[in-house]
Specification:
CATH topology of the largest domain: Rossmann fold
Strand content: 5-15%
Number of strands: 24
Structural class: alpha/beta
Number of helices: 24
Distance between the termini: 75 Å
CATH class of the largest domain: Alpha Beta
Largest sheet: 9 strands, mixed
Strand order of the largest sheet: 3-1-4-5-8-9-12-11-10
Length: 620
Amino acid sequence: MRQQFLPISKTDMEQRGWEQLDFIIISGDAYVDHPSFGVAIIGRLLESKGYRVGIISQPDWKDTQDFKRLGKPKLGFFISAGNIDSMVNHYTVAKKLRRKDAYSPGGKMGMRPDRASIVYSQKAREAYKKVPIILGGLEASLRRLSHYDYWENRVRRSILLDSRADLLVYGMGEKQVVEIAEALDSGLSISDLTFIKGTVYKCKDVDHVYQGELLPSFDEIIQSKETFAKSFMKQYTNTDPFNAVPLIEPYRHSNYVVQNPPPEPHTTRELDAIYLMPFTKNYHPIYEQMGGVPAIKEIKHSLVSSRGCFGGCSFCALHFHQGRIVQSRSTESILEEAQEMVQDPEFKGYIHDVGGPTANFRQKACQKQLKHGVCQDKNCLAPKPCSNLEVNHQDYLKLLRKLRNMEGVKKVFIRSGIRFDYLLYDDDDSFFEELCRHHVSGQLKVAPEHVSNRVLKKMNKPPHKVYEKFKNKYHAINEKFGMEQYLVPYFISSHPGSDLHDAIKLAEYVRDIGYNPQQVQDFYPTPGTLATCMYYTELDPRTMEPIYVAKSPHEKAMQRALIQYKNPKNYHLVYQALKQAGREDLIGYHDKALIKPKKKPNRASTKRENKKKNKRKQKG
């Protein structure tokens, strides 16, 4: 029997004999029933617990009509902006509107509003005033307490208050959602749900909060960047389920927002059960005539093997959302899903990815984490590996061997990112060698991010020499097996701590290795990251020391242009940057020059230009 999608209309409900749903999930993404989509996981999970669940995807937010499409839910609304932040989805770092939305049918833009979590929640409240509303997903998770908003260039209060929702789920959410559903189904009021780990709620007093830590008030935070940095650091070091405490953020008129500690990590058995639920692994048929949903392309024939990341990069929100404790699926579970994938008529023999936030993290960083959680004041990998770090790729290697030897599988790729320093620290080269021989398609993408050690330290990445050592070993292994494969390094421009001199240093490195990067990520200050706190406060919250931040659009454009100095469109920006930094030595015809000198206009061109100017004056 073909697996059904969850109901999206009254007709779907009638076919199931349902008059009313227990829960309605509202999402900013098109409805894709695949475990890479959070809404699909939550919907299937509630369904597996016996609840009647429906989906309203990308509703028209101009009025409340679309929010009433499935009627009034018996127990509540779960609301998510979608797989990625709606503002990031809509705008580039230059705050220009993007042209395509991979999570909408046909890649069409404009299918969701800005700040979708807030808009959807408010409209659901208008539609049914007394129905409980629970926010979830990445957008809400990273805005659970006061946060810097790059698009408005100000600190905003908890999204729970702006949205008028009753409760907020942060992190991946499965455990919280089930507990919330069972509590509401038992007759408890949504206002009584102050005890669920991994949730945030609002209240009038905090006498009931056990061992809570009082953060600075919202008014104090918006008045002082130093206070904001200190408050953020308390939040940032309070994400571990073994040692976290409730955080209390006061607002005016005796209002409080309380963040409960996160839930315990999933066991392997629990994670297996989630990913083996009966997903259709496709977008809803209603999108077929619209061109489908582009986001399915890369993930349909990919396998999630783990969650969590102990990499700790300053510019990444994984620490704040999924946590630092790695949770892995069993080899048997992944093989079972792969076997199902092979039977798909669209499968051509290529598994696009086997990984997670970091592909080669398949185990916890150390045994200590199992009992005591992660260290609050130490990092696992940077600037150097912790003495307790356990580096082992054998479990991942066995999994990959079984997958590539499976009948019907031609090639297994790894595209979700390899942590190169962790790989380098492994004394056993067997995984590194098999990675090069079997899981790279001509080029391996890695993320050294920068070459300036000063900037790398702010990024919480290893010194540049570590990447150089990895690069040399990668080429040596390929040479050993007679393979010609390349490294494609990713770099970030204008990260906090990087000035024009650092950007020029990176440009010189790109020149020296003969690389012409097609993609450069200009640092994007999104909520929940250490680097965003640095960007806003111009302080390193770990030390409270001042830090240089490129904030003007022009300087950010110069830093980005320097990395792509070969692009003729970037000539004037690169020229300005080199002049401003006093590095005219890089302007010339010699082999170390980044650009050539400006051409002196000849007399004929000067006359033509003067004539044009005179004509413009006469017209004016």
